[in-house]
Every structure is written in C-alpha cells, then in structure tokens.
Amino acid sequence: MWHDPKMMTVAACVKHCDRKGYIYAGLQFAMECWCSNSVRSTAILESGCNTTCSGNKQEMCGGPLFLSVYKVEKTPAPIPDFLQNKEEAKTDKFLEGTIEDYRGCVPTSKQGNIFQSGSVLSEDAMSILSCKGICLREHYSVAALRGGTECHCGHVETNFDYHAAVNNSLCSVPCGGFEAHFCGGHGYASVYTTSAEDPRCMNSTLKREGSMPLVALASFPGSGNTWVRHLVERSTGIYTGSFYTDGELFKKGFKGEREHWKKRNTVAVKTHDFSEELIKEYEAAIVIIRNPYKAMIAEHNRKFGGHTGYATEDRYTKGTEWNDFVMGKSRTWTNTALMWLQHCPKVLVIHYEDLISDLNNQLRKMLTFLNIEIKPERLLCAELNSSGKFKRPDRKKNLTFDPFTQEMHEYINIYIKTVAMALKLHGQAPLPVEYAPSQVL
What we know:
The protein has 12 helices and 18 strands. By secondary structure, the chain is α+β, with helices and mostly antiparallel strands. The chain has a 5-stranded antiparallel beta sheet with strand order 7-13-9-10-8, covered by helices on one side. Strands 15-16-14-17-18 form a 5-stranded parallel beta sheet, with helices on both faces. The chain is globular.
C-alpha cells in the first residue's frame, strides 16, 4: 500500500500500480492506494465512495469501507526469484489471489506464532489488506497470513525459512474477510512485506578512519553499482563510499558518499574509473559486469532520464548522438573489465544477471570476499528489501525498435567475446548464458 496524505489522485494511484505491474488500482480514505491482480467483489452504488482525493478535490478516492477501483491493462509483475519457484513465476494462476508486495508461500507449523518476536491476530473477517495494515501500524516489516483467518506480524528470522518457498497452490485458503484473495494454507503462510523498515537492518555505520581495506566496487555505468551498494550496506551494516560526490545519493541515505574515497572507513568504494594508475591504489575490487546491451540502455536512460527515468525514443534516432554513445561506451564496457582484471591484485567478478537469479549466494560471495561476518538476519533484510533506493519503475519502457544497428551488434559481440576470454584466463565466473558467446563456454 502507498499513501499520500497531500497529493493522492486517481491518476497517481493508477500510475503507481501500473509501474508495479498490477492490473487493478484501488483508492480508499482519500489518501491510500492499493494494487492487486484480481477483483471479484460485487460493485456497489458509487455513493459508498464519497471521500475526495487528497490531491484533487474533484475526484473520489473511495470511502471508509469501500475502494474506488480502476483497471490497469498490465500483466502481473514477477515474484522475486529467491522466494518463487522459477518455473511457475510467470504462469501461476494462484497469483490472482494475491496483491502487491507478495513474497511467496512458505511452510510453517500448523499452530502457534510464526515469528518468535512478533504478534498474531486471528479473526473471521481477516483480509490481506487488514493484515498488512495491522503489521504496518505495529511497525513490522513482514505480514504472514495462515489458514484464512490468522495474521502474523514480525521481522525476518532465521527460523522462518523464506528460501523454502513452495508452490503457491498450498496457500490457497480464501481469506475470511475477502474470499477473492488467499490467506495462506494449513501449515503454510502467504508472506507479504510492508513499508515498515526492520530496525535491525536500518543501522549502518562509518568505520574508524584507516581501519578498512581499500576495496573498489567497480563497474561500467548502468551495471547496477548503486543497487549493489544498497545490498552491501544492508548485508554488512557498513556504509559504502564513492570516488564521486553525488548529492542526490547522499540525500537518499548513502552516507559514505561524501567521505573521501581514500579514508578507508567504508566497506567498498564505488568507481567507474579504469585507469591503471587509479586501479593500483586499491587492494582489491569487486567488479560488476552486466550484459553490455542492457548496460548501455540503462546508462543512456540515466543520462537523459536521471536515476529512475527513461530516455525518449527520439534520443536514439536524432543525429549521431546514439551512434557515438554506443561506439564509445562499448569500448568502455570492455576496458573496464579488462583493466581491473589485469591490474588489480585481488578481484571478484559479480555478474548482474547472477544477482537477479541467485541473490543469496552472490551476497555471500561478496561478504566472504570482503572478509565480513555473514549475519543471516541482515542477509534476509537485504533480500526482502532488495530493490534499493534508485530502482527504475517495474513497468518496462520497451522501445518499439532495436536501437542497435547490425554494425553495432557485430563489434559489440566481438567485445563480449574478448571479455569472456579474459574471464576464463583469470579464473573468474563466466559470462551468463544469456549473452555469453558459445565458443568460449
């Protein structure tokens, strides 16, 4: 649920649910916006939705007991990989009985509290919305529904194995208060996250100056460096630093952004530089590599749309800017990987695509490389709040054409093969199958 006590409008809510990948948007209490993939309730007279929107007094945003519902012609967003069986992620019909922020069907005991430290409420009229609202009001980050009537609130715990997600059909007991939605099963819980933060995972710190090794977090722009910083900070409790000073990032919570990169008081330092002189300043580096086609599109979006926006299609067709951009950036993508592999004494290559498909293991690799103790609770925090502060909207803004010409494909593919061979030579993880040249595998 998203709420805005001052600026909520019908258009804003519909846009929010559109970006989240849901097909229905519902407004209530003038300021609340709810998203779902199904609505099977019977419509009532519009007089029940008599509360004006907080951002537009000419529109109605539901009422005390009713939702103003709008349909958004979008397909449901996929469930996060670490809590969803990949084979069913796109086709599971039981997802129609879920709403926004669903995290999977997880086995539990049939009775008793799900969370060791938390709360539980059982009522015949239980619904997903009411359970999430209860947990949010109690400042819990996770809401779990079981048996159709039980609402459990808590934070991530190692005894509740989120990675043991099962087929969603096992969480198909209708909610007592809204039968169109599912509220867990018998011995299984439908798990949702709320907008509350887990206080155990919010605290990050800067270490004493000079106490940390100088480790680079290096990448070609558009490869997810800021996202990885978010994951590392959540997993370690230590701020990351930066070779740059981005005020927008600092305001969003990256408190190491304004620390001098040589102070050695952060867990790793963001950089896109690949000069030999600078590389030799570092003791080690985590090098993030992403499919160059997607990385260049992402960097082009950042250039013209900021951290969360998109470049318009005419940015790919007017003049020679796009052609010059691809020619230069494809070389930069290649040189970033090659130079760090060649000149940094200790390197761990992390592929963006592997983070998407196998987040837990990739986080463990990075923490082991950084010589940081792995704390399971913080690792779970990072996974459950993996999106980060600068994730572009879930709604994909697909181009209506391939912006890469045949000539571009030819030389980019040569660069890909070059990087694949270098990774093999240096004993690093190979390029993901998604774009790896078969002859190097």
